[in-house]
């Protein structure tokens, strides 16, 4: 699509937003952080330049934000503090710093995240708080400092300890993927996959043809810890610890620890925002203060190919557990058949992760 055509559609989308009620317009202002055109363009890219679909997506997103009080979520602490810490220790997300182009770099411990110390809605709440803090604090500050719009980030996915236990985390992963798909589109420039087992590259070759072209461009599977390639886009100090073999870390330098400065700042910010709205922290329930609405299966199938595939994986997984007595060729045929069954659907990173988990444990390659 030409630049002039994109600008025309973005103006049309702005007209749609301007015609909405005050609560939705206010939520859009909170969301765009001073860059409305760039924000609308993200939604347009997420719907492959289709103005009608992009318009519906942005209106649905704003309704979701208002209905679920997302604009106030940074004033909704997860209490007690021990619950927040437990979530941080089992939903491994860390902030590493900035790449050479000024984009925030986040690390995600895919293999070691367990999501087993809180309810799904608490993990969803925590994830959204990180999203909102990234967009409204980190990206706003870096854009102001650089004098230009910086609206995306890089993510480094650590596959260390990836195993079949990933299957049990599909419900939480689906909820988070759905939230990001529908309400935070096109916020990641590149996913760097590191510390993957050797089988990953083989599985990736089988899955890659099914991916949307945008996803193919965004996902890079690096060798080993990926240090050599990552140093081309970020300084050594920005690399997460799992990309620096032999370097030990304390709780303060462990990017996944609740004692890391990013999580300390995040928690303190949320507490301060809560106090500024006269909230009585001790009176808030640890499990009942906020409940985020996650789209239903029907809504996911209408809007999110990613979540549709995640659900498809759940039904396919039992057939993938080949008997140890099956021949090598039979196991390969099983993989080929099940992958073929997903053709025509735009896949996602979790498809790759789960397939790798299953086949790495079965030792097919």
Automatic annotation (TrEMBL):
InterPro entries: CRAL-TRIO_dom, CRAL-TRIO_dom_sf, CRAL/TRIO_N_dom, CRAL/TRIO_N_dom_sf. SMART domains: CRAL_TRIO_N, SEC14. Residues 83-240 form the CRAL-TRIO domain. PROSITE patterns: CRAL_TRIO. This is CRAL-TRIO domain-containing protein. It comes from Physcomitrium patens (Spreading-leaved earth moss). The gene is LOC112294247.
């Amino acid at each position: 699509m030409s630049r002039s055509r994109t600008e025309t559609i973005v103006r049309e989308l702005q007209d749609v937003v301007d015609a909405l009620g005050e609560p939705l317009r206010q939520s859009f202002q909170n969301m765009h952080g001073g860059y409305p055109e760039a924000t609308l363009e993200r939604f347009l890219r997420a719907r492959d330049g289709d103005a009608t679909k992009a318009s519906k997506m942005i209106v649905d997103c704003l309704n979701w934000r208002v209905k679920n009080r997302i604009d106030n979520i940074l004033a909704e602490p997860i209490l007690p503090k021990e619950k927040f810490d437990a979530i941080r220790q089992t939903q491994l997300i860390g902030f590493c710093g900035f790449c050479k182009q000024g984009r925030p770099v986040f690390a995600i411990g895919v293999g070691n995240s367990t999501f087993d110390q809180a309810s799904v809605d608490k993990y969803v709440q925590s994830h959204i708080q990180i999203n909102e803090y990234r967009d409204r604090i980190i990206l706003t500050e870096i854009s102001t400092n650089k004098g230009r719009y910086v609206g995306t980030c890089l993510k480094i996915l650590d596959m260390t300890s990836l195993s079949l236990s990933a299957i049990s985390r599909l419900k939480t992963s689906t909820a988070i993927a759905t939230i990001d798909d529908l309400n935070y589109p096109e916020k990641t420039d590149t996913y760097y996959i590191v510390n993957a087992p050797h089988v990953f590259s083989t599985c990736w070759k089988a899955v890659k043809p099914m991916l949307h072209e945008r996803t193919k461009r965004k996902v890079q599977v690096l060798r080993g810890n990926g240090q050599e390639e990552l140093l081309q886009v970020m300084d050594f100090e920005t690399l997460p610890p799992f990309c620096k073999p032999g370097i030990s870390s304390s709780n303060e330098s462990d990017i996944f620890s609740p004692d890391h400065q990013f999580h300390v700042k995040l928690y303190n910010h949320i507490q301060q925002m809560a106090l500024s709205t006269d909230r009585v922290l001790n009176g808030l329930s640890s499990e009942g203060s906020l409940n985020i609405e996650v789209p239903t299966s029907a809504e996911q199938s209408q809007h999110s190919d990613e979540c549709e595939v995640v659900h498809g994986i759940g039904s396919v997984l039992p057939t993938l557990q080949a008997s140890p007595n099956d021949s090598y060729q039979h196991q390969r045929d099983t993989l080929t058949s099940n992958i073929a069954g997903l053709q025509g659907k735009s896949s996602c990173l979790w498809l790759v992760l789960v397939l790798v988990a299953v086949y790495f444990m079965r030792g097919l390659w």
